[in-house]
From TrEMBL:
Reactions it catalyzes: glyoxylate + acetyl-CoA + H2O = (S)-malate + CoA + H(+)
Recorded family membership: Belongs to the malate synthase family.
PANTHER family to which the protein is assigned, alphabetical: MALATE SYNTHASE, MALATE SYNTHASE 1-RELATED
Residue ranges of domain Malate synthase TIM barrel in the record: 165-412
Pathway: Carbohydrate metabolism; glyoxylate cycle; (S)-malate from isocitrate: step 2/2
Name under which the protein is recorded: Malate synthase
Organism domain of life: Bacteria
Ranges of residues in domain Malate synthase N-terminal: 18-70
MF terms (GO), sorted A to Z: malate synthase activity
Assigned keywords, A-Z: Glyoxylate bypass, Transferase, Tricarboxylic acid cycle
Lineage: Bacteria, Bacillati, Actinomycetota, Actinomycetes, Kitasatosporales
Enzyme superclass (EC): transferase
Amino acid sequence: MSAPAPSPLAIVDAEPLPRQEEVLTEAALAFVAELHRRFTPRRDELLARRAERRAEIARTSTLDFLPETAAIRADDSWRVAPAPDALNDRRVEITGPTDRKMTINALNSGAKVWLADFEDASAPTWENVVLGQVNLSDAYTRNIDFTDAKSGKSYALKADEELATVVMRPRGWHLNERHLVDADGTPVPGALVDFGLYFFHNAQRLLDLGKGPYFYLPKTESHLEARLWNEVFVFAQEYCGIPQGTVRATVLIETITAAYEMEEILYELRDHASGLNAGRWDYLFSIVKNFRDGGAEFVLPDRNAVTMTAPFMRAYTELLVRTCHKRGAHAIGGMAAFIPSRRDAEVNKVAFEKVRADKDREAGDGFDGSWVAHPDLVPIAMESFDKVLGDKPHQKDRLREDVAVEAADLIAVDSLDAKPTYAGLVNAVQVGIRYIEAWLRGLGAVAIFNLMEDAATAEISRSQIWQWINAGVVLDNGEQVTAGLARKVAAEELASIRAEIGDEAFAAGNWQQAHDLLLTVSLDEDYADFLTLPAYEQLKG
């Protein structure tokens, strides 16, 4: 019996955009509709499973490697598919949203890979969702020359052989696309919209360029979620007539539950797997989210005090390298988020040394590559990896068999000798308000205090405020963190911003709205799973 015809998808509550007809073709929407019909029900089951697992963690305050998948971990015979040439050398990757200027600058940056981001570095306005797809297609056809209207500066792509390889990051499973709904009015998951439109229009085009449809998979919480992605890849390749195994996916291990299933995640995706990535902010956010009832031993100090050298973070990164290399996958390190100052050479000097030390550590630990947020950091990171790799494309031959990580090591938060501070509370409020205000204006990657911040920044900021209030934390100045103290700090920050930018700019922005939203998700007794869910309801466009 033949499958039923895909439900027609309707575009709702969206102003028409220039060139959207190139992306939202009848054939492309039919493909997205079929993805939605086949895979959204399973997506919904897996989201429900997240809630069940979170309830179990609340009951037990622990996690362990899965007994039911022990045989997969014990089987030394399996490996992921070999890396295609275009993804074999990933020593430096640059990240950023898919606006036109960023697309050109990232591709020209000298990095080996560009993470083209439809997720945490992109506020999901309809314009960003659709025109981001236009920009990537234009880049592949070399029709993306651009002149900045403000500065008059022109941007153009370098020669093909000098361009970074694109690895596209769709939205996580939890976010829907409210502007694209089926016949029942049910929104399509943002992940399937982003993936589907990109794959449909560009898979063959990329193969013709000697590359392929490569993806970063965010917010994965279990190997079952990776299995669903693998099923999507198999179907998409069959539907579009693309050879099986063409897709490659790198999974961000940015949730604490996924850290216990790294081998299983690679196993589920093994014909399409490329590697795993070790992040920081979303990973810490996930620890707070899952262990928020766990008492004092799970209270995190200031976010900037939790570096990758913290014992429980070191356990996570070393286990990731060992796991990847055991299975023939790339291990990709974390983000250097510093944004160089045009005015303060001393600030740059200090920051560049920190970036260099961080990248030296990652290369020395066995990572095959790492992330930066700004083109000026590409040469620094490149130098760190060049020193270790030389002419080799990666160091998968370093099996790191010296690494032995126990289940308890990954959640030994109290092994870090640092405590919450008043300055840390202030910083969480400052960054939270400033980031959310920009996000509500449609900006997902925002420079704040010389750091490139994305949605993960706001998540860890509001989560720390919530955790410190609910744990009754006493700060270094003797004050207890309460809802009243958080409101006081937030009011002071709002007044400070008004004084800094002036009444006119303040009134033109979303400052009060951002302040209120941060306090809502920081003070509500019921902890919101993702800040971006209530924020999306307030996002215009």
